[in-house]
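Job type: complex structure
Entries:
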Amino acid sequence: MVCLYALFIGIALIASAVLVWATGGDWRAVLPALINGSIAKPGRWGQTLTEAAPLLLVALGAIVATRMNLVNIGQEGQLLIGAASAAMIATRGSGIFILIFSILIGALGGAIWSSVAAVLKYWRKVPEVVSTLLMVFIATQLTGFLLTKKSLLLDRSADRPNKTQTSGQLAANTRLPYIHIFGNDISIAVPISVCIALIVVFLLNRTIWGFKLDMVGMNARVAQRFGVSERSAGIIALAIGGALAGLAGSFMFTSGTANYRYTPGFANNVGWEGLLVALVSRNQPLVAVVIALVFAGLRTGSSFLASTGIQREIVDVVRALLVLALLLPPAYVFLRGNLHRDKNKGGK
Amino acid sequence: MDPTIFASAFTPLLNIASSDTMYQSMIRFAVVLAFAAVGELVAERAGTLNISAEAMLISGAFTGAVVSDHTGHITFGLICGMLAGVIVAAIQANLSHRLTIDQFVVGLTLNLFVLGLALFLDARFKPQTNVATKWRVPGLANIPIIGEALYGQPWPMYLILPTVGASWYLLFRTRWGLEVRAVGENPQSADVTGIHVNRRRRQSIYFAGLCSGLGGAVLVLAQIPINGFEAGHVGLKGIIAIGAVIFGGWTLRGTLFGCLIFGYFFALQQALPSIGYTINSQLSGALPYLAALAVTSIFAARTRQPRALAQPFIRGLT
Amino acid sequence: MSEVRTSGTGAQASVPLVELTNISKRYGDIAACDNVTLSMYPGQIHGILGENGAGKSTLMKVLIGLVKPDAGAISMNGVVQNITNPQSAARIGFGMVHQHFSLVEELTVWENVLLGEELKFDRARARVLVGEIGERFGLTVNPDARIRDLTAGLRQRVELIKCLRHDPRVVILDEPTSVLTPAESEQLFPTLREKVAIEGRCVALVSHKLAEVLHATDVITIMRQGRVIEHHETHQTDAPSLARAMVGREVSLRSQHAVLGASFVSQSAPSESTSTTDATDVLQIADACVSLGGVSKLKNLNLGVRAGEILGLAGVEGNGQRELGDVLSSLLTLDSGLISIDGTIVRTGKPGSMSRAGIAVIPEDRHDSGVVLTMSVAANLALQRMVDFSHNGVIDEVLLFESAQQLIDEFEIRCDGPNAPLHSLSGGNQQRVVLARELSAKPKVLVAAQPTRGLDVGAIEFMSDRLERAAASGIAILLISSDLDEILHLSHRISVISSGTIVGTIRRQEATMEQLGLLMGGLAL
């Protein structure tokens, strides 16, 4: 099995190198740039860890939904709503209480956003894969709208240049603190996220609540027989997913993304990539911690690619290829086993 | 009731209804949606749900732009767009219905991958396109208001007609289509009767790839004012196409009608300013998606989906 | 069933039409078919008798191309054939009418007949074809009807048409009467004899029902555990010998009598006296009505089960039993009517309400609503009682394990320990898990739906024994079964359900096969 993984990852990396070479880039420069950007150069691995935190949170939310066989792919939008909600509160005041309050509001905003999809699913049978996805676009427009009105999110300060559409900047005493070690700045969002991951693992595997969730995901009819309503479990699972994505957004905002301002395109694909983290970690929260780090490394590493003359978008391709590489081995093994059985049944 | 209130509400509506820009826009959007929706309809009747319709559109659009720029011929661009769609479809079909990787996972990954790849290559190659020539049906195109919209479009747009015709014929007048429909309703029974369930599903996805790839190419090569490829122009139209299929209750007529409705909302966003009305840009931007959400909510509960929709088939595990 | 037998001696030609030689097929450790050798002669109706799991279905799947045998040969008219898939089997001349039909409900009759064919898609021709075959074999069906609108009997006709369209030399029917009313069954056998078996065709009738096989066949092959045990001419054998061969040992007098349809009084009948003195119902179902998709499934169903009794609910499948089971499992809401336990009304359709009220259910399809295949045995044994194994919401794994081990020992569940995944257990052991779980909840009512279906003899005896013990301990048991043997074997009282309503209730002592057959056919006493 490990050989299969190594093989497929190798193929993915080779394919990426070929792509760079075929489009006239220097493929030998890619890996060093990535490594420099993610961990090698001073201060980088702190940055990587900080960027891993929201990825991890989004992934945890996705994992909870998948336990129940729900397909929630709207985290990018839920994250935006969370960040915008947090920004609206936090830029209005200052101090630690506002900070905490705004973070919670961010989580709540994300939860409400995903609950809309949940309600539509159980009330009107809309497949959540469609509704959560549509809501991403709606979220983009909605938060864009918020940025046009001073009464909502737009920066109120007098010296804002007319063209920029951003929110006010977060006051210095309302920012999420950083831990400084070995020359690196790590946001406290990181340890908080890891704790949340541990809590999620505990809840899912060791509590009755997690057991009921598993029951509903594995056999909804049995769950119904024994008192677990698919509807309430589903709404809660989706709400948790939204809350975690919203929390990720709040953390991103309060720990300095875009220089403590809410800007258009704030999410910067963290929602999509968090989803991929969950998929690749095969819905194991602890594995997601590691994968989130890897993906964060790709993100921070890619910022060093500009100097090599290779477009940043190559990282998207590499990432997708890696995802496929990590998804294929189990499928391959399953298929071999099934083919073996199939031969006995007369084949296709 | 003050009659002037009536007038002030009525006039804008009348202006919108009688604006030929509006209809031209609407048809343009509707046709692109229809390419994707009709293909996806066939795939969904077979029981698959492919959110990678988005990736198929993007691949068709980008490849169409590059090839037509390189060769100078729009026809080549269209053909290569179709091929690009089929390639994406092949990945989706084989990973999900041969290697049993979850179809949503594959779809999402493909969407992100193809988009990233297209953006990457676009930055490298920066293809430019020119819009294809218009075909005006003399006489008919002069009908006021809707004439230009229906009969004066650039010629690749008319390819939707054979595409819809082919889908109808395939699905309802061939044995292949019968088997596809059986596979989407009751794959176990179909299997026992000797039909290759997953093979039919894969084939239906290839067809969807053909249609969506063509649609993407048409989008780029036949619509103004677009020059070159820009990712935002596809903008989740693949997902909206799925919404149209749901709206249409998985029937051909309903799906096409759904495309018209969503086309209308996209058109509102684009054409309103030219008629002289301003609407909040974010609201108009969100409108098509809000509409898709609303429409799906109304119709998903009322219509009957293919019974085995989105349920993977693995022999022996049922 | 009527006493007129349609079986005959079946003119035995000297050359067999089909010969199976040493067919073997293993699935892991289990030999589904073990060196099976038999011959079928033209013009004959050949019965293949055996219990569930005896290997009959696998053997037929080999003939029809759905399963590839590990060893052995099949020859038609002396020529060895290579059957690779259903289409090639059809070309060679084998046709099968499946037990659980191979029809697609949303499509029409003519579309279904075309499915899987290598024919041109031509609606007019298909309709004509349906008409032609229908007339030739006496199986008229409207070609434009949608399958979902047809009754089970009509659907079987479509299956037959699909099969006969290839003009097969061998027609295989797999448990054909399991979904038919006695009246519909009566119509089937003469059709087979008069229309199908002529012209040198051979009919293979696969069944586990003794009476049916005795009634309709010319020769009988008995299979047990994958092997051919015996082979008889029908007119030279009788029910007791068949039963003995099928099961492998002396079958109790009770079962034999039940099989033959004679009414009987058994000395060791479950004590009737207790159930007649205590006349209050523990479980009361009053005027239950349920419609699904516009079709009425339960129509004013009234039923009462007393403590300590086993009430057998007999009836052909598809008359509302499944819906009743679902209602009592909190899976279906009544449109009208009431369910009450000891006088307290229980809300239907609300998750867990039935279970909490003390109604335990052994469902007819355990994979659907009985077990969670991917969870462990221990988890499955504790599904509704997890609270008992936790402190403040946290699961106590040790407690769970110990309790599971106890139940495993008590119910003799064969598995790799409490942590084994449930799907690794055999069907019989999975059923024991269900039984163990339901009984361990100390219920007031136990609903057992088709509890011994698909089980081997040992498992059946265990299950029956447990049910009797449960009744003796005071639980009210509702036994829903389409197997009359089982009903007659276990019940104190018997109610018959037909078209969603109870058509009659009689005490077991007074029950005869004839009465029950009439009731099941929908005719009230």
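Summary: Chain A touches chain B through 50 residues (CB under 8 Å). Chain A has a mean pLDDT of 85.
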